[in-house]
Amino acid sequence: MNDPSVREDWLATPGAALAGEVRVPGDKSVSHRAVMLGALAEGSTRVRGFLEGEDTRATARVFEQLGVHIDTPSPSERVVQGVGLHGLRGAGYALDCGNAGTGMRLLAGVLAGQGFDSVLVGDASLSSRPMRRVTDPLIAMGADIQADPGGLPPLRIGGGRTLHGIDYALPVASAQVKSALLLAGLYARGETVVREPHPTRDYTERMLAAFGWPVDSAPGIARLHGGHCLRATEIEVPADFSSAAFFLVAACIVPGSELLLEAVGMNPRRTGLLHALRAMGADIGEENLREHGGEPVADLRVRYAPLQGIELPAALVPDMIDEVPALFVAAACARGRTVIRGAAELRVKESDRIAGMAAGLRALGVAIEETPDGAVIDGGRIKGGEVDSRGDHRIAMSFAVAAQVASGAVRVRDVANVATSFPGFVPVATAAGLAVAAADTNA
Q1: pLDDT-based confidence at 173, cuts 50/70/90?
Q2: Which CATH fold topology does 28-236 show?
Q3: Tens digit of pLDDT for each residue in 391-426?
Q4: Angle 16-19-22 (CA atoms, 0-180°, nearest 5)?
Q5: Is 3 a catalytic residue?
Q6: d(Cα 265, Cα 290) in Å, to the nearest integer?
Q7: What pLDDT score does 348 carry?
Q8: Catalytic-labelled residue, pool 55, 123, 322, 388
Q9: Using alpha carbons only, what angle is made at residue 28 by residues 2 and 118, rounded to the nearest 5 degrees?
């Protein structure tokens, strides 16, 4: 894990046109779930394209501590020797999820059904994120979970409880909470039903089906019964759309750019940014559509095109919540005004991303009005300066992109956490044409 006492900065400067072909790392959400379900399956599961990020490695390490043998025959590949649904063993010490909110929430669902006690801990950022949205419904299923005041980690999960299925309507749509309940449902008596106020990503449903567990799902609802088993399979992890998003926006805003992003995951609950950028006038084509492990995949060809500000349809926000920081940058470069609403969830991510993006863009001369659930952004000239990523990987990469069209250099502070989702971002970015490099933190 990164040493929180050591700060890393970038210096990003105005760049030339982007060109060539880019393959971004594997999808983080799929990588987490592939290790989890592979561990709970009968037999050996091979995962190709596994994201070698700190979050996903933390999840794999937790399962190794729970008695699962995981081989790494080559980078971005894992072979998970499944122990079956009831084969995990208690570690006897706290399980460290690092910065992985997905890992902690989904593990809470898995561990709620075990016969042993567990404690889930995380780093300072994760320890500040409320978990009641996931612990309350798990407790309603019969789980024994205690947290610190405010519902904060650590999560102390008592073993040996009998879980029962529930019919639960999520008050706030969340793929992570839905997934935790479905995973707990594997261990529950009867049927577990999760209803959403609007559809969220269905990675868990798709992957459960790939592992042979009967799942009945449609947009906005998922249901399953306990009592089945998971069968090992092979998983090909698509390139992470959230990581591709930064290159999509960069190629849209840097004149003369044409970039091909290879094998990008096109889960329909993930691609809201595509619709938003196209509504702004972006030139993005989909080529070589195919399917990997139940997930739709395509190559994306993006060419520079002048963007126009829009009022972002609120219906798109749930399908692009992780990509909204990148959209802030596109809006800052567009002609006219962009209005973003319905993104209040950004307030409780790794940082308050609305506040972080607004402060950073303002420091670079962009006219932006922060609102409780979004922002109003008037596109225009971006100047050089210094911004604080607040230790948030998506904010950091967004400002590396913004710097490509700035009038001067942009120093992006506190970028070490980029390794949680996009290890090797700088070499991949520079190969595509972005001008970004490590900076002297003593300067």
Answers
A1: confident
A2: UDP-n-acetylglucosamine1-carboxyvinyl-transferase; Chain (3.65.10)
A3: 999 999 999 999 999 999 999 999 998 988 898 999
A4: 125
A5: no
A6: 10
A7: 64
A8: 322
A9: 70
